[in-house]
Structure formats: structure tokens, C-alpha cells
Amino acid sequence: MADETEIQGGAAAETAAAGAPPAEGEGRGRGGRGRGRGGNDRDRGGRGRRDDRRGNNTEEQGEELIEKLVHINRVSKTVKGGKRFGFAALVVVGDGKGRAGFGHGKAREVPEAIQKATAAAKRAMVRVPLKEGRTLHHDGNGHFGAGRVSVRSAPQGTGIIAGGPMRAVFESLGVADVVTKSVGTSNPYNMIRATFEALKEQTSPKSVAARRGKKIADLLRRGGASVVEAEADAAAVAE
């Protein structure tokens, strides 16, 4: 009888152990691991969604811009134990449709300096009115420091007669025909600033007519053109 009682008691204990819930520590451990794996998956998914949103915003807000690296200057600072090198970048940015800007950035590495300069150029973009979308409306002069430049409108097929930093400005601006001349310093920073000073003075017949309260054809007729030619040119004027 004692043996049967022990056998029955052992079977009941095994049954209770099989049907009993897991221990508190084990349940938390498995649950914690499960939650940890699920949390990691959610984190990975969340990061992916954030990246996708950033890409969409960039595509929606950003437009195709022309970026021109004009100049990179390396500087060094002598410190205890050696030299520290840094880089300064000058970048010109434009949309090829009459908007352009320039900026410069400094950093310990070249890519970071270019990135800073590009961001500064995008913030400083200005609009320049173009004649027929290919050249300037009139001649202009600009100077900054020891740099002096002159820009002139040109007939179709002339091309960009400019060199160095000035060419980068007109290519990013979308000008196809222009004649330029730089006198004085060859410092790219001063040349770029002088070029933008000349471009800021550009005005279109449309803006002049609006400011003076006249018609565009009346302004164009003062150049000796006939009424028909003046009206045709006025209709072709685009900002």
C-alpha cells in the first residue's frame, strides 16, 4: 500500500508540473527576449520609415541643381606636436533657369567643407532676369575689393566667353551666350563676388516698364525699332 501511494503521489506531481504555468523568472525571461526581438524589429522598421520619409521630402522639396566646385584652399596650423590641416571650399550652385548663388565652407575634411559650402550657396541663391532664357538683357559692371568684372550680352551662338570662376557662375545660372572680362585680382572669392554684384544690377524691360508705368513696347521703340518689331519683341520678353 505504501508503494501504491508513493506512485500515485509521484504521478500527481508530474501532472501538476506539466499543467502548471512556467516559473515567474522563466516567463519574464522568455517574454523579455520576445519583446526584445520584437522591439528590435520595430526599431529597424521605424528607422526604415524615417529614412523613406526623408527621401520623399528631399525629392519633393529639392530640385535638380547644378553644383560647381570653384576652389579648394588648404590651410595649416602649427600646434604642439605637429600641424593641423583644414580645408576651405568655394562652391557655386544654380538651377540653370536664372537662379544662382555661391557659398564657402571650412572643415577638417574636404567632403565636409564642400557640403557646408553647398548648403550656404543654396541659402544665398538670387534670381537674375535673362533675355530669351540664354543671355543677359544689358551690359553691366561689378567690383568687389580689387576684383573688377564686366559682363555683356551676346547674340545667339556666341557661347560663354569667360574663364575660371566666372564660367562656373554662368554655367550654373543657365546663360548660354555672354562675353565677360575680369580686370585686377585673380582671387576666386573676389571674382565671384564681383560677378554677382554685376548680375544683381540686371533688370528686364518688364520690370522697368512696371516701375515707370509704361508698356514694354514703348520702351523698346526708343531704340529705333518700328512699332511692329517693338510689339513682337515685347511679346517675346520673358522674365
Describe the structure.
The structure is a single chain. The protein is an alpha+beta fold and 239 residues long. Among the domains are: 66-126, 2-Layer Sandwich (Double Stranded RNA Binding Domain), CATH 3.30.160; 204-239, no CATH class. Helices cover 49% and strands 25% of the residues. The chain has eight helices and eight strands; from the N terminus they run ααβββαββββαβαααα. Strands 1-2-3-4 form a four-stranded antiparallel β-sheet. A four-stranded mixed β-sheet has the order 5-6-8-7. The protein is elongated, with a radius of gyration of 35 Å. The termini are far apart.
**Contiguous helical run count:** 8
| Main sheet summary | 4 strands, antiparallel
Rg from C-alpha positions?
A: 35 Å
Sequence of strands across the biggest β-sheet: 1-2-3-4
CATH architecture of the domain at 66-126: 2-Layer Sandwich
N- and C-termini, Cα separation: 111 Å
- As a percent range, the share of strand residues is 15-25%
Indicate the percent of residues in helices.
40-55%
Quickly name the level 1 CATH class of the domain at 66-126: Alpha Beta
Helices and strands: which structural class?
alpha+beta
User: CATH topology of the domain at 66-126, which one?
Assistant: Double Stranded RNA Binding Domain
- SSE order, one letter for each helix or strand: HHEEEHEEEEHEHHHH
Detail the poorly predicted runs.
31-61
What's the rounded overall pLDDT mean? 76
Write the layout of secondary structure elements.
Blueprint: H1 2-19, H2 24-61, E1 66-79, E2 82-94, E3 99-107, H3 110-123, E4 126-127, E5 140-144, E6 147-153, E7 160-161, H4 165-173, E8 178-184, H5 188-200, H6 205-212, H7 216-221, H8 227-236
